[in-house]
């Protein structure tokens, strides 16, 4: 073996370890190393899974600049078992979702619209800086009259642009905000994972806004106030003494009053009257390109970790069948931060009448939200021969598929689109049919004995649809399917 | 330092890291890296450990080809605290334990007999292939008349031979089956660890068979139906709609009926009338040799990870005392998959009247099953000066030694053999006597003060049996011991 | 690139991985790798955090050589939520805290005095050896008359000297003892973390002494016997049969009686009449220097892992402000064993009227014990606009700041000193004011919109105290502060 080659090999191997962004990122996320995929979530002492339903949000919180609808885990057995809540937020044009953090790890999927978003990472520098060149006006400054005091060029932490199909990950305890600088509503669906192992409190989603008065603006949709229905978000400044805040912020008593938001009734999403000036990427494309241009393995440090990934592009699908649809996964391999949040996600599109083959998830629950169309979904549990759920999942509804439980879906006549949040970063699944079917791992004579069928029949179920992976076009006439569904 | 040498050293060191099977295997097991030995099990909110007993199975499930007896954790406080159940399965000649998976990590010890076994690993290829040479009949095909359709040579995932003293590890969610191709009964004892950190459901062992009708064949041994006594295993196909299964399996409605097992009353272990043809290793020895011949560090990938280890051979004992017996440990160092299951095991043999020195396990519970003979076992807890248990543990019985609790055992006149499942992959123990006694770590003057004895006496208890490790032959006459035991 | 250079680089990189003490140490601690900072503690199903109080110990256990006061987690909602108890132990001159282990990970801070301490690590050699040179008397031997039998030179595991400001870490299951060889009382404050992930039992602190009779000496301070108030420490030998102990210790029945401590009423801290001879470091300084002299990366093996760090020296402060005070952190980076215990600690000193800026801890609870002076502490929760706690924390009192909850403190006229135990090894905090304020990460226009203030005011709160980090001197007159406090 040539000595130079061996050096390169040695270096290469070592680099493979060292320039994995994991160790650096682990420092801040408090997560494990990249090869570490252990899930140690808080577990419900008893999962009530005798029946499942397609569910709607149980609560709505209105605000000046939009509203949030919540599926609360205290309200639904299936979410309680999974240890997660789900929320759907609509932000109107010029709406600012106030900066907030909580004990939940969050995965946010952009269902509609486009906005800017940021996460403030503790200890990281303000890297978005407005340089003022001589004779040039700082574009971040709103008006010329503030020039004497306000002439200091602004700087803040990274701001990213989000568009339809993006998913963004937020570690627990990180402050996050969204601002809709577009002309149409933004709709976000968020998994709120309080069972994450970073959370040392109980399973309540306990949150803190940096401004406003969430105690006032929130009101339950219906009269019934279940356990989780209390207001569990606060303005973090509200409880501190005025004189302390005045001192540590170096400001006046009047400003402290405003910071504490005592008389602020705008709610958790406010309207910014004349638009918000900040240093932000102009267009989505550019930011994306820039990232790819300069990739050298070094830039994935703690403070520049990538937290966003687009899932909408069929060209990047993991499973693609021109007759049936496509599936795209985001996990710790393509979005490393998910290695620390122990979460992943699946975006899927099924064409008219196509079938997602029956399968189970080995190391995660799957929280499915229908972003479009509808499907007949069947879920099989361990305690009864009938399915736990056999019905339609329609746009705007969600359902939980518990770990190890088997699930299949057949798209309706308008197709089916979904985002599925998974409570594990290595959400391996095992299919019951097709190319990667578990039946293919078994001897054909065993199948014959197990099912009391002929060897010929056993070969059929082992290989007949053996060239198709995960999603199949329907071979039956669509009328048959519709008949079945209308009976269900 | 010579440059070639340094290259080799550099390479060697890197190899030591990279070719450790851990990182690869971690991808599929969802476990931690090899050096990671953290246990984050589900913990019982309250351990009832005021009394311990040697226990028998509380439930028996009969089937055509054998039967399973279960110690259910819902039935025994000691198992509830440990978060595990234990089962003992007897498979008759030609019996096939149907393919099954559950949310429990499993360690199975072969008490009697010999069989073949397989685990279907998601995403792994079918590596056991029957090649058909020209003019040669495929030996896996049962009959000549199937030649036109059935002429396709079979292929399936790895099948391994198990014999007495083997232990086999099964990650949660992996499909597993056993087939007794011998002439005598096979007896398996299995730890069902639902407290494993991969399980995100509650502590119920929720299982899915790939065939049959477990809802019908199971019946509780006694009338009392405790919480865990419900049927919590299902045929995974049973709840799916016929037309979906027909489509995705590419088969007929009649076959789907058979797959769903509606009228199958054979139970979870079926009899294969004319024996089962498959591609399997002919003899145990050969497989073992083959593994050693080709070991080059590369073969321990995800799909070929070793899941079996033989514990019966005294020549590989970790502790060996010709007068007292021997102990053999299987842990993540000699069976790497245990690094991901966070489990380990100890096989022990004590000769007539020999003593297992008092000790405690720092990072695991120990679930002891007596495979032969009997012993007087004493267990000391933290709340009372008397022992929690002082009695006989006889062949076929089991008992839990909780973490940190002290235990000792003295074999009866026929000796004592056991398998001990440990709920940690680094099950360190600390002895109270002998070569590695904790007393040897303390200054002799401190022992004298602690126990209010002379320095001479302190030296005695520190060094008198200081050349013996873990297991000691009895120095007293056996009659004295028997007297004691008969009184107990 | 020069080949020699590349070799060095390759080696260097590999060394960086391999000679990190982590992998070796992980073997025994059962902890994760160094870069692994995941916390998977046992979590209280429901945290009662509507009110917080500065609390005193609820129980006192007296013994011959001192006494222990305990804040039991069963008695205080805030400790129950954190999964920890706290104890304060006073050891009199010549007092020996008997060797003991439990299922709690322990962090012990020396508030007063100086003593020797040791942890017996399973499987590690007795490295403190008394060599007897010809004609020289062994200094460890108490008297000449024992020379014939007692002439064997003693050896035992490492003993370390502790002084004021030291913190010492003890993994669960490790035997530990303290001996006060000085002339003044030693006062130790200990975090007892039963929520640590190594503990597989419930959250009770279940402990075992190697001697004595804790069942007799302990008596509750008050009549009320709450759940945790039972005696949950035992002499580990007490429950074993005499004849077994006689055999395995190779000693007489009389000595076994003494070992079992049946008639020992001295309690858990005994007085050693004529002092205790052992092989121990003579002076604190020397040990410290020795460690630094020989540091080459190799000495941090399993058996020689450093378990002690001094936190008292202002010269090593992490945050230092001559007008306000200083803060020193001990975590997995400067005391690697904390990487396995998933704990860390903060020692702080605030001068008269100085302020610890409002902040929250992202990945840990903070258990604050006041070692000196007093402070006005304010804690803000997520459910009400008022603070959960606004009052004095005085010397000898403690309080829990839950994860993510915001806290600030202003020292009283005599200053404030504290030790804060944190239930995470990467206890990142985020400040609401000063140099690392979260407000600096937000665009200035956003602050103006959020708080409905001018851009000028927004710049003020963003930058006005922007040169100060974490601790600020008060700019207001101290009289104002005192007024406020007297009203509180």
TrEMBL record, chains A, B, C:
Residues 50-257, 309-459 form the Cupin type-1 domain. GO terms for molecular function: nutrient reservoir activity. Residues 1-26 form the signal peptide. It holds the Pfam family Cupin_1. Residues 135-163 are annotated as: Disordered. InterPro entries: 11S_seedstore_CS (IPR022379), 11S_seedstore_pln (IPR006044), Cupin_1 (IPR006045), RmlC-like_jellyroll (IPR014710), RmlC_Cupin_sf (IPR011051), Seed_Storage-Functional (IPR050253). Residues 139-151 have a biased composition (Low complexity). Keywords: Disulfide bond, Seed storage protein, Signal, Storage protein. Transmembrane segments: none annotated. Seed storage protein. Belongs to the 11S seed storage protein (globulins) family. Hexamer; each subunit is composed of an acidic and a basic chain derived from a single precursor and linked by a disulfide bond. This is Cupin type-1 domain-containing protein. It comes from Stephania yunnanensis.
């Amino acid at each position: 073996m040539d000595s130079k080659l061996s050096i390169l090999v040695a270096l290469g191997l070592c680099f493979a370890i060292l320039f994995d962004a994991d160790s650096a990122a682990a420092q801040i996320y408090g997560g494990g190393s990249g090869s570490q995929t252990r899930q140690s979530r808080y577990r419900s002492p008893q999962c009530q899974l005798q029946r499942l339903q397609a569910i709607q949000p149980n609560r709505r919180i209105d605000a000046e600049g939009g509203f949030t609808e919540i599926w609360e885990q205290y309200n639904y057995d299936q979410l309680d078992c999974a240890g997660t809540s789900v929320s759907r937020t609509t932000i109107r044009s010029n709406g600012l979702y106030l900066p907030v953090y909580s004990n939940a790890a969050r995965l946010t999927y952009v269902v509609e619209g486009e906005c800017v978003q940021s996460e403030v990472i503790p200890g990281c520098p303000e890297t978005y800086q407005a340089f003022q060149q001589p004779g040039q006006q700082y574009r971040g400054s709103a008006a010329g009259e503030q020039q004497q005091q306000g002439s200091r060029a602004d700087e803040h932490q990274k701001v990213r642009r989000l568009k339809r199909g993006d998913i963004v990950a937020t570690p627990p305890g990180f402050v996050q905000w969204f601002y809709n600088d577009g002309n149409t509503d933004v709709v976000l669906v968020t998994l709120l994972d309080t069972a994450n192992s970073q959370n040392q409190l109980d399973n309540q989603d306990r949150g803190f806004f940096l401004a406003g008065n969430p105690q006032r603006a929130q009101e339950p949709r219906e009269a019934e106030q279940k356990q989780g229905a209390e207001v569990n978000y606060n303005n973090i400044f509200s409880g501190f003494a005025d004189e302390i805040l005045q001192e540590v912020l170096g400001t006046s008593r009047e400003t402290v009053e405003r910071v504490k938001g005592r008389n602020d009734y705008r709610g958790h999403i406010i309207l910014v009257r004349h638009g918000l000036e900040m240093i932000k990427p102009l267009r989505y494309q550019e930011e994306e390109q820039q990232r790819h241009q300069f990739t050298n393995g070094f830039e994935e440090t703690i403070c520049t970790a990538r937290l966003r990934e687009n899932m909408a592009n069929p060209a990047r699908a993991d499973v693609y069948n021109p007759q049936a649809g496509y599936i795209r996964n985001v996990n710790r391999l393509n979005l490393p931060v998910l290695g620390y949040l122990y979460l992943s996600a699946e975006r899927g599109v099924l064409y008219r009448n196509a079938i997602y083959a029956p399968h189970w998830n080995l190391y995660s629950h799957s929280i499915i939200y229908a972003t479009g169309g509808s499907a007949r979904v069947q879920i099989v549990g361990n305690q009864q021969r009938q399915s736990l759920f056999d019905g339609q999942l329609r746009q705007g509804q969600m359902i939980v598929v518990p770990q190890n439980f088997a699930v299949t879906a057949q798209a309706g006549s308008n197709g089916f689109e979904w985002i599925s949040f998974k409570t594990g970063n290595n959400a391996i699944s095992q299919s019951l049919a097709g190319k990667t079917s578990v039946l293919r791992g078994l001897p054909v004579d065993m199948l014959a004995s197990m099912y009391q069928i002929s060897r010929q029949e056993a070969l059929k179920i082992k290989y007949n649809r053996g060239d198709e992976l995960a999603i199949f076009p329907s071979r039956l006439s669509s009328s048959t399917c519709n008949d079945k569904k209308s009976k269900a």
